[in-house]
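thread: overnight batch results

M.L. [08:02]
morning all. the overnight job finished for the chain we discussed friday. pasting input first so we're all looking at the same thing
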Amino acid sequence: MNQIRLSQKDAPIAAADDRSPLRMAGFGAFAAAIALAAFMIMTTVAQARPAPESFADLAEKLLPSVVNISTTQVIESRGFEMPQLPPGSPFEDFFKEFFDRGQPNGNKPQARKATSLGSGFIIDNDGHVVTNNHVIQDADEIEVILQDDTRLKAKVVGRDQKTDIAVLKVDLKGQKYHAISLGDSEKSRVGDWVVAIGNPFGLGGTVTAGIISARGRDISAGPYDNFIQTDASINRGNSGGPLFNLDGQVIGINTAIFSPSGGSVGIGFAVPMSTAKPVISQLIKHGQVKRGWLGVHIQQVTPEVAESLGLKEPVGALVAQVVEDGPAAKGKIQRGDVILTFNKRKVPDMRKLPRIVADTEVGVDVPVEVWRENKKIDLKVKVGELQEQEQQVAARTDKGAGSDAKPQVVEDLGLTLSAITDDAVQKFKLEPDAKGVLVTDVLGAGPAAEKGVRPGDLIVEVGQEEVGNPDDVVRKVKEARDAGRKSVLLLVQGQNGLRFVAIRLGKG
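M.L. [08:03]
and the structure it wrote out:
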């Protein structure tokens, strides 16, 4: 390992016979500065963690805590089925005799056992083993195989599909094992060394090492994606195995790989312990996961949305819909609010909020800070419980749509607008009780077209104020321009429901 060293050569700062106090003082200050710089450099070197010369000691300590998981599933399958023949066909007797003779049980379903392999790790002396849900899903039998090849029958304590985590339990009496501790993945940094141990392709006890390549990855695997990306070699069979830091603590559960070939290409993903810990705890305690529910549909706060709402920067989660009688509605959260903090935790972007809410204890009152009408407002919300089939539908507005049916061009938006008429309801297949202002035409190169606004969409709000006719829209656009806004915020009802759209205003 290279070390930073200071030169030991003497520098002729002053002549040997020069006793000038000024020069002596200058030398002393220079020497002090050099000494301070040397101290700071050596301190930095001492704090930086060097690359290990070997992972052997760490691997020897951790291998007994990692297990292989073997699952067996009984699958019923039929052999070749007899072809359908016309009644009275001369081939009917031939094929019947062939199928009855060619298959031991005629054409009855045949049962066969399918086996699969994965990885896991022991987390306590009670015999709890953590793995991925997809490793044991649909299994009829599960065995945990220790480092010395001892096979133990395992039962499922609980599993969670949304985070792909499962907890098993085995009887560890008389067995040699090592229960490992769960680390704090939030302290890990991109570039930190990590070690993965697992059962790739059935080759148990395989140790690989690499670094954390990225954090907070969303790979569209579930609603709470927050993966650690690593270049430590992970292959099929590593699923459910641990990702360790150099302190021997588990900071992630190896779950997925990106691979065009099916093998490791240096892009693996692990569920971080910050996500896994509360899930594991609830699975052990309750056998299932109870997640917090707020009852809102949210959108990303883009720079245009932030500017139109008076926010200094694009942070938080924009509330597009509020579920009627849900926790948010009861806590006075309104459509158009931007949630900045939830339960004293900052919401840097839309993706973070669902995970924060899900991790919050059900039934407790939590503080929520929202941005509304150019100021911060503090609210209290009682967290509900997320149901698997929760239908989160927002209530409609109640204000009527005006009577003026004459189309009007709003050049600032690149839209032609009209009040809702009976003919429009039929032409655009609108709901009979539709509210708002109808978009009848969209200028192809206009700002609204760039945001995906289409003919048949309804503008329900402009600048967070309900509109009922084209004149309302024109007035709100003029107000935004007069206030020096560069964009205006629309609430649009389309085929996919309500959504906020920030449209940049053209030159006026």
